[in-house]
Records
---
Amino acid sequence: MATRRGFLAGLLAAGLVPKPGWADVGGPAFLAAAKLPEGGFHLFGLDPAGATLFSVPLPDRGHAAAAHPSRPQVVAFARRPGTFALVIDCMTGKTVAQLDAPEGRHFYGHGIFSVDGSLMFTPENDYEVGQGRIGIWDCDAGYTRVGEFSSHGVGPHDVVRLPGQDILVVANGGIDTHPDSGRTKLNLPTMRPNLSYVDLDGRLIEQVELDPALHHNSIRHLAIRDDGLVAFAMQWQGDTAEHPPLLGLHQIGSAPVLLSAPGDLQPTMKGYGASVAFSGDGQSAGISSSRGNTAHFYDVASAGFATAITAPDVSGLSGTQQGFLATTGLGEVLDIRKNVIQNVSRHPVSWDNHLISI
């Protein structure tokens, strides 16, 4: 008589036993890196209300993460200019693979999977030549590096994918850096940020640049709506007396639309867009500023300003069915509905920059 173990092994070999999915780890809605009170670093999986479902240790400070579209695996990225990213099995908490940036490169803290989850794409800095690259990793072969292509700009900080399509949207921030100079910005007089749409072979489909007067507005972080509308957050590298728009909207084939708060509200952002997100219904867009201790919210259809909230060190931002969830460096999770903070929960951690939707 066949053993139960043998029977299950036969089913697995025949593909009849379903592979673990996100539901098997509680169905987390968000990922966020944080620093613990004792000084260590973890990556957390949070439920839709911001409660902890799991946490796994990181060897150093994390920045953002990417969730595999079907397997309960995440790739946790080191903060720029880190050279490692860890592939973590959220069922066991174990690291199953490590991505190491090639010689002369560093990661920017972000990445994205292909539609089917077979490939991972990582924005990178080729710092000896001052050009952006997108690394390609084969997830089914243990996250082996299998290629790369140009990001079509300098300083590709973030990358997202058009919904249901293998077209990448790259935020080329325009800032050249080198590890020998730390985080010093080496090319501010000549920087030219852009938003580039590329296919998986690296072919440029469309590229958007801002007005030359805004060439100091580094395009940094991205969010995307179900219809392909991209929201991009910017960080101003020019005169601190100027307060340009820090939130932009763009859809492929159209001109970008820049959004700004009225009167004396725009200066409260301190020229710094930390994170950007659409609300769950896609009708609102939000941008946070940890430097300004504020987040601004806009109506997408009219591109008009809606309201602002104040919260110390607010940074991570993501959409929910009711509005937004935000995280702060003080360990708070803010439930924002109708652009008002409805509830605050607290965790004994310091949340890092981003709150990533799964």
Note: The longest strand covers residues 119-126.
---
Amino acid sequence: MMKEEEYYKEIYSRFWLKQTKKYGLEKYVKFIIMQILKSDPNSVFEVGIGTGWPVASMLQKKKQGIQISGCDIAEILVEEAKRTLNIEDGIYTGGLLDLNIQKEYDTCYCVRTSWYISDFQNIIKEMIRITKKDGYVIFDIMDSLSLYHLKLMLSEISDSFFKWIGIEVEAAPKLKFYSARKMRNMLKNQKLPYVCYGERQISKSKDFFNTPKKLFICKITGKEKGIVS
């Protein structure tokens, strides 16, 4: 059976190459791009940069001279991101925790990606480490208390039943859901001021079942890095 990381490197990354343009610039993504631009960064680092579209591409379009860096575990997506953004250096193949980045950035973000990552809290701590004082860390999660999570859990029970009676069901890695409450507590423990927005709040959607995302925008004050002002 294919390991989860290999699935994302091979099968999912090729699927994403075909699908990425179809998603377009939905209201939720436009809001995220606007929040990143409001932080007025000269340099950004994107965890899970994918093909570079739409976030990095739009930042590049909206802010002249912005320095874009990022990483992704799928080499095929990294190569596409380099072509999309016309960048040779600063986009890395690999997970953030494996890269030991030594540079600091004005804004570090990870959006529409955390649900493919195990132990995302360690990713957030590393994002904090590579972000400058007075910079911003921006990320989103799928809330474990959302109705979407409940829907997927019921779907998994249904799939298990079909397998039990001998009907094949296409397998795919499970999405990772995180507790918004635990995320808030972690940020408080890290001494990070933050604001949190719900996906329905941003998109104005009335769909309770398919809007599980929580967006966190955190200000790096220096306290979480042990910096004395």
Note: The two ends are 52 Å apart (CA to CA).
---
Amino acid sequence: MSFLFVALGGALGAVGRYGISLIPVKTSFPVLTLVTNILGAILIGFVVGFATDREDVSQNVVLFWKTGVCGGFTTFSTFSLEAYQLLENKSYVLAGLYILLSVACCILGIICGKKLAALVRG
């Protein structure tokens, strides 16, 4: 049964990621992937922060959100490819900025998500 929760969440996450990719943005900087990864980091931080040490939250619900939705939504493989392509095109400053922002903002997203979950939990 847990596989079904992961699969459904993954489908929802993938559709969300695809929807964001359709936003018309004209820049050589991969801003939509960056935004997707930051949103995914906030969401997974929230899920972990909200569900930790709670017996009233089903493990299937956690699997749906954390493994399914976040796994289908975030785009680390795309991030890696885009960073590589920036380096390959000798756009070293953009590549460095993209890598730094992606890592730093996603860690900050985890912190924000956990703090938000703490506020919701009371």
Note: The chain has five helices and no strands.
---
Amino acid sequence: MKERLRELAALFFRLGVTAFGGPAAHIGMMEDEVVTRRGWLGRQHFLDLVGATSLIPGPNSTEMTMHIGYERAGWRGLAVAGSLFILPAAFLTGILAWLYVQYGSLPTVEPLLVGIKPAVIAIIVTAVYRLGLKAVKNWQTAIVGLGVLIAALFGVDEVIALLVGGVLGALLLRAIAGSAALLLLPLLPGNGGRFLMQIEGETAVSLWSLGAFFLKIGAILYGSGYVLVAYLEGGLVDQLGWLTQAQLLDAIAIGQFTPGPVLTTATFVGFIIAGVPGAIVATVGIFLPSFLFVLVLNPLIPKMRQSVWLSAFLDAVNVAAVGLMVAVLINLGRQTFTNWQGVMIALLALAASARFKVNSAWIVLGGAVLGYLLSLIG
């Protein structure tokens, strides 16, 4: 047990330092590490965990670390893997928040991001290919995945697309709904019922109220980091007035270019509002529900596989999750491939990842260095 905990600690601390690019990239790195390299999980079970994390609130990739930790070493592994994936990003974000408060601006990191973004896209491509081979089991699952991909590209809320894809996909796999399942996906509302947090605030910000705000977000947050932006803007800026719009945008930028979970934006916000205690309270608040959700959900996943209907639902959710990853990939590509440097870095990173099986951490580091060098020559 102790050896497994040490392995988990070493792996997820390293991923917490090097995992740039958001949840899809993080999951790609984990698939490379725990399925391809170490064989800790089979690809099918890894897919089941990905699908399961998409069904509960909280940051999907962070919850994946907890699931993997639980599989390897029970609740202790869950605590070790989840905490050590979060802590490096939270610590770095806290340092940047201190610099921001001291100097009033963010450090310039664009030259590094020039190379990191295309390298991350290559990692996601490799992971999507591997997971897609396992998830697309027949023409029915292919229809579900394609339908969710199209729905996501047309702006349908990720969680709504995933849940409806899972339900209708299960019906399709059980030969009840037929091909009508695909037709219903694009009819979903674009905003998917997103709502903003409304919390009774106080004029003086106490640690209790700060912790309660982020605890509530952690307990109900579905979807991507863009949903987090809506929650923070509605709660912190419009409702409570704890942050200005400019401070919120800076906080979001910090979450985007630091490694690890995007939700460490909460660390930055907490520090601005209440210093080091605020950073700690906000970070614990937003991540604590995920630890509890995974602790309850993980033992239920094998039982879902034993049920014919729930197994079909899980298969549909799995391929729907892959469809969402493809949508993320397409959107990232549109934003990233604006010059020849990005295309070249992505191709080199793809060759390193898919052909030569280079560790994803080295690919990210190499992309950052190459991006910086290419930015010097224009």
Note: Residues 177-203 have pLDDT under 50 and may be disordered.
